[in-house]
Each structure stands twice: as C-alpha cells, then as structure tokens.
From TrEMBL:
Belongs to the MreC family. The chain crosses the membrane at residues 12-31. This is Cell shape-determining protein MreC. It holds the Pfam family MreC. The keyword Transmembrane applies. Residues 116-263 form the Rod shape-determining protein MreC beta-barrel core domain. The gene is mreC. Keywords: Cell shape, Membrane, Transmembrane, Transmembrane helix. The lineage of its organism: Bacteria, Pseudomonadati, Bacteroidota, Bacteroidia, Bacteroidales. PANTHER family: CELL SHAPE-DETERMINING PROTEIN MREC. One of its GO terms (cellular component) is plasma membrane. It comes from the Bacteria.
C-alpha cells in the first residue's frame, strides 16, 4: 500500500494530466455534433471490422436456427404463392399475373444486400452497423429493409461500412399509413419493448380497426409505399385530444436481425430534385 501511495505521489501530475485529457476529449466529442461525426466516421472502419469478425462467429453458431427459420418461411411462402396463383388463374386465367406485378413493382429499385455486423437494442438511441458502404453504392438517407419489413435509414457511410438509424432510435421518424385506409402519420419509438412503437397524428375522423397493417406511405424520399411496418394493437388519444396515437407491433425482429437490403431508389431522387426545383422556382417568383 505504501508503494502504491509513493507511486501516486511521484506521478500525480501525469495522472492528473491524463484524466483532464480524457475528460476534455469526452466533452469535445459528446457535445459537438461535427467533432462527434468525424470521430464516429473515423472509428467506423476499425470498429466495423471487429464487429464483422464477432458477427461471423455468432452467425456460424446460429446457422442451424437460421436454416430452420428459412425452411419454415420458404414453406409458408410457397403455400401462399400457390394459393394466390390458383386464385388469379381462376379469376383472370393468368397464373403469372402476380409475378408480373411483382417484377413491375421492383423495376425501379436497386437493392443492395448487406449483413448486420453490430446491433444494439437495449438503449434509447440504438444503432446498427452493416458491411456495405460507399464503395458498394450506399449513400446517406437511403432506406433499409429486411424480409419482415422496415429496418431504418442510413445515417453515416464510410467506404466499406455504414451505420443505420433504426426504428429503435428516439430520432427515427418514418412516414406511415394504415393499409387500405389512406390515413397517415409518423412512426416513433419511445424506448422499452423492442417490438412496439407508436404512430402519431392519425386524424380523429379516420376509420380503421385493430390489427390493420401499417405500411410506409411513400410520401417521404426514403421508403417506397407499401413496405410493412407492423399491425395496430391499441388506439389512444393524443395528448391534445386532436388526433389518435396507435400502438403498433413491429414486424421486424430487431434482436435477431442478420440480413438487410439497402434501397437505392433513383426515381425517388429524381422526384426530390423536381420538387426542390419547383419550390425554388416559386420562391424566386415571390421575391
């Protein structure tokens, strides 16, 4: 104990210097958005590689369970396709109509497949890291989905990795609509259960029922319309009593997220450019 005290007394100025340096860096990166983003981007490549190795080991030991789930899903999908094809053939005499519609729907989209290498679900502001980046065509603000529905939005991009802002983040804000009803609101997650979120600003005159599906509205520049978000479990009044708040069970299982796709929608980009040009033209005329 005496030796330890002598050591601390001898090098106390160096210890104080190190503590102050650490504290200053923490304050710098935590309370300054620009410095925080630079640090986040710089550390992304190194941490992404470490996370990728760790995820590879976890995925190897989880392959048995994943294969079982995929087999069950494929069986279910095959049954659904068979039933739909039979129904279309009986109604229209064309069993390939469903396939043609699906191909037409996806014609304007390029999907960039990626694997999740890091994922958190136990924080208020969670992030997801994937193994695709700018070199693969990923850009900031692109939408990300999985086989079950919406995942989130690309937040930061490096050459080979990207960080996503998932639905399970307090800053996430996704435009949604009640399928087949035409009413839309905004999806938020307030913490707590990872399979529940809320859709706010649904008008009081809206007509819908429990277990109706909630899908992306297509009004934003991120997601195309019709991507599954979840289903309605409960309905509440908003705090001001002017609208409804929907409690939604999310279709995506974020705790077991492995494979995702980044949506590269060129049509959306063109639409944004046209809308921006129109707004600029209107402002110029007003001035």
């Amino acid at each position: 104990m005496k030796n330890l005290l002598d050591f601390l007394a001898r090098y106390n100025h160096w210890l104080l210097f190190i503590i102050l340096e650490v504290a200053s860096f923490v304050l710098l990166f935590q309370f300054n958005n620009y410095q925080g983003s630079v640090w986040f981007s710089s550390a992304n490549a190194v941490s992404g590689k470490v996370f990728e190795w760790s995820a590879s080991v976890e995925q190897f030991f989880a392959l048995t369970k994943v294969n079982e789930d995929l087999t069950q899903r494929n069986l279910l999908l095959e049954q659904q396709v068979r039933l739909l094809a039979d129904s279309l053939q009986q109604r229209d005499g064309d069993a390939t109509l469903l396939q043609k519609q699906q191909l037409q729907l996806l014609a304007d989209y390029r999907l960039i497949p990626a694997k999740v290498v890091s994922n958190t679900v136990n924080r208020r502001d969670n992030f997801i890291t994937i193994d695709k980046g700018a070199k693969d065509g990923v850009k900031k603000d692109m939408g990300v989905v999985c086989g079950n529905g919406v995942v989130g939005i690309v937040y930061l991009v490096s050459d080979h990795y990207s960080i996503l802002l998932p639905v399970l983040n307090s800053q996430s804000n996704i435009s949604c609509t009640i399928k087949g009803r035409g009413y839309f609101g905004y999806l938020h997650w307030t913490g707590g259960a990872t399979n529940l979120a809320y859709v706010d600003d649904i008008p009081r005159h809206a007509h819908f029922k429990l277990y109706d599906q909630v899908v992306t509205s297509g009004y934003s520049s991120v997601f195309p319309p019709g991507i599954l978000v979840g289903k309605i479990l409960h309905v509440y009044n908003s705090s001001d009593g002017l609208s409804y708040r929907l409690n939604v069970k999310l279709s995506t299982d974020f705790a077991n997220l492995r494979d995702v796709c980044v949506i590269d929608n060129t049509a959306m980009v063109e639409r944004i450019q046209i809308m921006q040009a129109a707004n600029d033209s209107i402002k110029e005329r007003e001035e």
